[in-house]
Task: structure prediction
Amino acid sequence: MSSDVLELSAAQAIAAIDAGDLSAHELFAFYRERAQADSDANGDGLNCFTWVAEGAPSATAGPLAGVPLAVKDLFCTEGVPSQSGSRILEGYRPPYTATSVAKLKDAGATLLAKTNQDEFAMGSSTENSAYGPTLNPWDRTRVPGGSSGGSAAAVAAGLAPWALGTDTGGSIRQPAALCGIVGLKPTYGAVSRYGMIAFASSLDQAGPLTRDVTDAALIFERMVGQDPCDATSLQFPEPIAKPTAERLDGIRLGVPAELRAPAGDFADAELEPGVRDAFERALKLAEGLGASVQEISLPHAPHALSAYYVLAPSEASSNLARFDGVRYGMRAPDATDLLDMYTRTRHDGFGTEVKRRIMLGTYALSSGYYDAYYGSAQRVRTKIAEDFKTAFDSVDLIVTPTSANVAFGLGEKTANPWSMYLSDYFTVPMSLAGIPAISIPCGLAAPGGADARQSSGDASDAQQSSGDASRGEGGLPVGLQIAGPAFSENRLLDAAYAFEQALGFAEGAARV
Amino acid sequence: MIDRDEVLHVARLARLALSEDELEPMARELSAVLDHIAKISELSLEDVPPTSHVVELTGALRPDEPRASFPREVALEQAPAVGGDGFLVPSPQA
Result:
């Protein structure tokens, strides 16, 4: 059954289980074995997982029919290691489960594994992890993106049917793009944050990483809802529907000039030629599907990254104050007094990037600098939200590349923090505005240089090529980001589905 | 430009020990990032209200009803050191 089962999307697996053609326990055992093999392979695997379930799940009943779920390490899962990729939470097994995970388990999902991530979700490459880096299944010399890189690589490689990630400034969308899968960052407040180990509370959102848009809708439907344990969560105004749109007739798509050709100080975020070609092809395709495409302006978008790198580290410096060696995780030995214990525990427990962000946030919030940095950043945030509001008066959805580049090499950006931060250039504006955005694969491109292999734009051709597509050879995945107003997820998923059907992306190429 | 003394001051505020060989790179990297970030202080934003949260929510309250917390032993289970009924820590003043 192996290769047949591997090619089932989560929605197809549920249908097969409902029809009696597949048992939930068979499916779980199949994926458990694959995940465990990656875990056991150490340096020869992708290093997607920080923990893999040992036995079979006890309960599989519900609309999600027992389909196994991989969950980013930072979601608290009762009795299961949850360290947010950090040494400072060594050995931590939470006494409770995050609301989003609990809701999915109630709907019949089963916990397959926890996935690797950048420490405390701070990074764009999954290289900042106490568990070591995760590798991109398309090309193992490259990063899977981050911070939800373990989830993205696991889904792309067929080591899990679907996965949960979190997105603060792009941490679901960018790894989805770099691994050639679908990633949805919901409207802020749509999904409870309770039980997510916090990074930046005004930005963090949980969302799915899936093989296709239908699966994203299916799992997202079960994640939304107001939660008394998260005062910023909201009731989603309508049920999440299965996407069905084949066309984009009458849809007005806006392309922000500032996110098409980054200039000036952000010229380093300029699109790689292959990414630009894939993006422009997607726009042509949209017109063929009946959409109109117009250039719009988000005048403050170029400042989003600067505002983000004040606000997120500031919130992080406060959130991470709780890691002090007293209540959970590790403690530095032989402290001379309490302060010495705090400062040395934090020195030993946090990685370099986390220390840098704590320092940045503490500096920005410190006396004398607060107005210049934090105050200004909050005002820029207002302007960015207004820019989007104005844009959505004249367009229905906004489209951009998800990332300026395809997957980059391991170690390529670690020496220069700002070059890594630039990975978020296209995703951070939506995060600051709290609006939903989805990344879907829109083709393949050669890294850096010219276009490698065209996504055919024809479903029948793509089906032909998906069988024999050899891994990484013809290029690396490019992500298309689609954003909409708050709570427009149904429209977003419908548009993404129409794109997906027309693009016919060869999704099987990264399977291991 | 952030110098070594400023790094030490901020590290003290953050309750973070930095080793000697971490100081110079930290000063350099923070300075480089702040150079980029400082651009926003050049925008004219005087009349713009700050946004701390995008969700327009006021007073999400729930009924103030007592309910059981974690049992003490569960709360203490993850602690690096426990003494009697509480978290054990080194003395504030050695």
About this structure: Chain A touches chain B through 70 residues (CB under 8 Å). Residues 428 and 478 of chain A are 18 Å apart (CA to CA). The domain at 2-253+459-471+490-496+506-510 of chain A is CATH 3.90.1300.10 (Amidase signature (AS) enzymes).
